[in-house]
Amino acid sequence: MNVPQLCLKCQTTLRHGTLRMECPACGAHWPLNQSIPSYDSANYHGEVTQETIHDLIALAEQGHWLTAARTMFRDSNPELYDYIADLNRASWIPILPIGQNSTVLDVSSGLGALTHALALNYHHVVSVEAVAEMVRFSKLRLDQEGLKNVDLIQTTLAGLPFSTDTFDLIVLNGVLEWVREWRSSGTSREAQIAVLSDLRRLLKPRGVLVIGGENRFGYTSFLRPRGHPRVRSITRMCSWLDALYRRLEKPGFYRSLADSPKSDGPYTHSPNGYVDLLRQAGFPVVDLWWPPNGYNSPHTMLRASNRAAIRSYCDFDRRYKDRLHGYALARQVRHWAVVDTRLIHRTLPDVIMIAAPSGDRDEQLHSGVPLLAAFEKQHLPGERYYADSLTTHPYKNKAVLTVGSGNTDTHAVVKIANVTLPGAEIVQQSYQKLQRLHAGFTTTDPFLAGSIPSPMGVVRVGSLLATMESSADGSRLLDLVLDRRYFDRRDRVRRHLERITSWLIASKPALDASASDGLIDAIPSEWLVAPGRDTGAEPGSAPERFSGAQHGDFYPENIFIDEDSQRLCVIDWDSCATGYPPLFDWFCVVTGLYYTHERVGGLPRGQTVEFTSFRQTYFEASWFSEVIVSLSHQLCDRLGLDSARLLEYFILYIVVRYRQFLSHSQFEEKHYWGPLNKQLYEQYYQFLLKNQTQCCFWKSPAPGLL
Ligand SMILES: [Zn+2]
Fold first, then answer.
1. How many angstroms does the Cα of residue 144 sit away from the middle of ligand 1?
2. N or C: which terminus of the chain carries fewer CB neighbours within 10 A?
3. Is residue 329 domain-resident?
4. Number of domains the chain is built from
5. Whole-angstrom Cα distance, residue 95 to residue 151?
């Protein structure tokens, strides 16, 4: 036990007895249950019923906590499963201004996801929880994970047995709303200030407090993809109502205290209200972030002060949904009401706050983020980086941080992985790949200069490995394409596609050269095996191997176009590999444009425009399909490919995409997108087989038709 526990009556350091914690001064004592000290407790309350959690514990005792959670919730309640299992719920770790040697307090740690993540990143964690069942589950979890740097303690906010200046970090996730439960007198606000002041006392002078909470006036809504199922239909009608509903219903996913006798509902604030509250409690410095998907799914985090980024996020979200699910008037109205009126900035539904008691901290806690400081040191003199936004995905061991430099007004992209978790090597390998490709791209052809990000450095800080690269100039093609008038301007579309074609031709020598020196891996050969066939290669039927490297994820989201210079910059080279069928990148970008003859209206729930777009792009005559066919022939000519095989290459593209998604869906946690896309590409494949003669690549017309 690294953090001393104090007598709650006389503050003397307690002695660890065999069955209890004892005060040598006043004789007070508290029991140890299975070696866990218990200072205070609360009646059961949680995300699931007490009966369910008993089943979960029983299952975890027989096997492994993760298997138990997976068995019970992965399919029946994926939201809850993520809540328990996804370590990226602590996505904010890389942007905290504290070092790895820190001592951390996780308050009301529940089923232990944050405690688990914190233990992988910091020297020592104290995890406190009031409910016995939660403590029991966390104990199993920590033991089974072999995490020995955690003190698990059963207690409430009213009984924290620690001394002043103990912690470098205190985490209060979804707790502040409920603190009145632990106080017998005063208003909710007074209770919150009292709790925060008490935590400030436990914090070291240079420590930080992280709070995840809901905004009192949050509109909670159209950006929250996974709302409570019972309010979903209402969400579509009116998001304000949704917010109200959530308050009234206290849906199970957010931990509720419905069975507590004192419950008068949660008490939350507006973002400014939180800042005020924190100031009063002795935290003059507050860094406010918006997690659009809720503070329990902070896979995207935007700095609240960065209004432009918030607006463009909302704008993108609306346009993307319009394109994918069909145009819906209600969505436009909501966007107008919330975003265009700028109400969004006052009504951010959830906030994550990083607060510091020390006045000498930079206003936005820019300084002292160890990862950024390490890059600053590498890039002396004069860079001062600050984090602007953070993006990760459930379970993925990679986070992307966009950073700005206050001094030089440059921007960069930092990719981060935790080396104690599987998959961290991908970030490093990807960086080496970028270095190699960048060198090739700059020497072979001046036309290609600047068309791939510049590698800027690698650092290792504690458990985190991070690489930095320059950010792309120009507009992201996806953003351009999502404009609902994009396909109205045919010349511009044609120009973009021609530009991409030229780039694919020009980059080939550099890609081929990189492929030959062994840094670029080959895709698995079974990715070329058609759906429904066994991948265990039958003798004599080994799939054809293709040489040369391709980007592998050449979607409009990874392509930037500068409209003035018409220069292209292609980012995210993680999937760059050899062995993709010819024109794979080309088919990726064309498919990703989501072309349709006309704007698609609102589709039934759950349907997307993807299949329609696939059919209209490749199987129905249009000006667009003429452009695609013509440029495909041009690519064949210039890349030395046989244009008679275009249809075959196209089929192989579908096959590889299908196999890619299949292999992703086999990573068990990728339940949220793997299977869906696998089905989509299987559908494409079947459709293509049945309608080959209608495909635009069938005996396709000779070039020069346009
Ligand atoms: Zn005592």
1. 34
2. C
3. yes
4. 3
5. 24
Confidence of residue 260 (pLDDT cuts 50, 70, 90): very low
User: Which of 323, 355, 387 finishes a domain?
Assistant: 355
User: pLDDT band for position 364 (50/70/90)?
Assistant: low
Q: State the DSSP H helix or E strand holding residue 316, giving kind and residue range, or none if neither.
A: helix 307-325
CATH number at residue 659: 3.90.1200
Residue 320 CA to residue 117 CA, distance in Å, equals 32
Establish if 11 belongs to a structural domain. Answer: no
- What is the spatial distance between Cα 171 and Cα 183, in angstroms, rounded to a whole number? 20
Interaxial angle between packed helices 584-591 and 610-618, expressed in degrees from 0 to 180 and rounded to the nearest 10: 120
Give me ligand 1 centre to Cα 508, in Å.
75
Name the residue among 292, 288, 296 with its Cα closest to residue 271. Answer: 288
Give the max Cα distance, the chain.
95
429 alpha carbon to ligand 1 midpoint, in Å?
55
Give the tens place of pLDDT for each residue, 152-195. Answer: 999 998 899 999 999 999 999 988 877 766 666 677 788 889 99
282 C-alpha to ligand 1 centroid (Å): 28
Residues with CB in 5 Å of ion ligand 1: 7, 9-10, 12, 23, 25-26, 28
Contact indicator for 106, 114 with CB cutoff of 8 Å: yes
Q: 664 C-alpha to center of ligand 1: Å? A: 56
- Computed on alpha carbons and rounded to an integer, the radius of gyration of the chain in Å comes to 28
User: Which neighbouring-strand residues pair with 153?
Assistant: 128
Determine the Cα–Cα distance for residues 342 and 338; give it in Å rounded to an integer: 6
On the question of pLDDT at 233 being above 70, the answer is no
> Are residues 197 and 325 located together in one domain of the fold?
yes
Distance 39 CA to ligand 1 centre (A): 13
E-strand stretches of 15-95: 15-16, 20-22, 29-33, 36-37
| 402: its two tokens | 């966009």
The span from the CA of 248 to the CA of 254, in Å, is 12
Distance, CA 26 to ligand 1 centroid (Å)? 4
CA of 468 to the centre of ligand 1 (A): 52
Give the CATH number for residue 456: 3.30.200.20
At residue 606, the 3 state secondary structure works out as coil
Instruction: Note if the pTM is more than 0.90.
Output: no
| CA dist., res. 397 & res. 121, Å (int) | 13
Which domain CATH number covers 88?
Answer: 3.40.50.150
Q: Does 684 lie in the same domain as 545?
A: yes
Distance between CA 214 and CA 262 in Å, rounded? Answer: 20
Single-letter residue type at 686: Q
Q: Do 72 and 187 form a contact (C-beta atoms < 8 A)?
A: no
| 282 and 173 both lie in a single domain | yes
pLDDT in tens, 16-42: 998 999 999 999 999 999 999 999 998
Residue 34 inside a domain? The answer is: no
Q: Indicate whether 167 and 260 sit together in one domain.
A: yes
Q: Is there a single domain that holds both residue 172 and residue 300?
A: yes
